[in-house]
Specification:
Length: 352
């Protein structure tokens, strides 16, 4: 593939994708956003990354979500995105929402992790350099850091906006109490908290059970749900076995022993409902997350154009009957599957 060919996006890209307002703001996000987490690092050819990103933008996906340590290796997803941006997307920058985050491990030493002002602002400068951008649209505190005062973390986010390096700021995986506190601090600093990025899926409903969803609604903060497919669990691939090339079958990902007979039984029931709706399992899971009007977007990770196109189709069937919701509830008890290895190390009670 000749990577220097001029890219022209599809002229009808805005005709079918729904866009939702983010909280009490003027910003809208596509119902489907693409996250460049594990499938866009240097282990994936740039031609594949480029093809997926083109397909996304051609179908009205204007939001691309990254973080400093996405890869592998760390930083490589931002570098790959930056190359595609320079070659293809630069003329369309004002049609895009590009976000990045900092909070987890990034570089050696005491200043390459956490929520300190030193780390967050240094990381943002590095992210902008890797992506070859002047600014990001959204900069997130990726996690709560129990060792850093919340005032310092929120102050760093506000500084990013005041410096013109971010248009908006958000938080990720903060529980209700800390969310209220963070939003209050940012308000005092003259920078509203635009958005919260929590994990949310049929098998992970902590934002409902903890009261976070109601908290965000009352505060006027938008929500974008990451891992709505429970890292691929809510797809057809795990109905019978764990494929070698799947996330559960790969080293360093979630433990395949979590996929028990009970889980498979629930997946089979959900598959039946999806079939009756004329949807794939992935489409059902995404539609279910988007049934919440306060969820501005479902943030998905994909390995191929085919997976992306399948997910996009979820936006054509976002309505559920009461009977369907009752049936889904019967097959989707909250398993509280520990799909995120770091969750066992979280010390703040407000976190999921």
């Amino acid at each position: 593939m000749n990577l220097i060919n001029e890219y022209q996006p599809h002229q009808g890209r805005y005709e079918s994708m729904p866009y939702r307002t983010v909280g009490r703001s003027g910003l809208k996000l596509p119902a489907i956003s693409v996250g460049l987490w594990q499938n866009f690092g240097f282990d994936v050819p740039l031609s594949v990354v480029r093809s997926i990103l083109h397909t996304a933008f051609d179908h009205g996906i204007t939001h691309f979500d990254l973080a400093n340590n996405y890869g592998p290796p760390y930083g490589s997803a931002e570098i790959q995105f930056g190359q595609v941006y320079q070659r293809d997307f630069r003329p369309f920058r004002d049609e895009m929402i590009i976000s990045t985050k900092a909070g987890y491990d990034m570089w050696p030493g005491p200043y390459g992790n956490g929520g300190s002002r030193k780390y967050l602002l240094s990381s943002l400068d590095q992210s902008l350099s890797r992506m070859q951008l002047d600014y990001v649209d959204i900069f997130y505190s990726h996690r709560v850091d129990p060792e850093t005062p919340l005032e310092e973390t929120m102050g760093a986010l506000a500084t990013a906006v005041h410096q013109g390096k971010a248009l908006y700021v958000g938080i990720s995986s903060y529980g209700p109490e800390l969310t209220i506190e963070a939003v209050s601090i940012l308000k005092q600093l003259g920078v509203p908290c635009l958005i919260h990025q929590p994990s949310y899926s049929l098998f992970n409903r902590w934002i409902e059970t903890s009261g976070l969803l109601e908290t965000l609604q009352s505060l006027g903060v938008g929500a974008i749900a990451f891992s709505p497919l429970a890292q691929g669990l809510l797809t057809d691939k795990y109905l019978h076995q764990v494929p070698d090339q799947s996330r559960a079958g790969a080293p360093g990902s979630f433990d395949s022993s979590l996929i028990t007979a009970e889980v498979r039984s629930s997946l089979a029931g959900l598959k039946m409902i999806a079939d009756e709706r004329g949807q794939s399992m992935a489409q059902l899971a995404i539609s279910w997350v988007l049934r919440q009007s306060s969820v501005a977007s479902a943030l998905i990770g994909v390995r191929s154009e085919a997976q992306l196109l399948d997910a996009i189709q979820a936006t054509s069937s976002l309505q559920f009957s009461s009977e369907e919701l009752t049936s889904i509830e019967a097959y989707s008890r909250e398993f509280e599957l520990n799909l995120w290895a770091e969750s066992s190390n979280r010390t703040r009670q407000e976190m999921p």
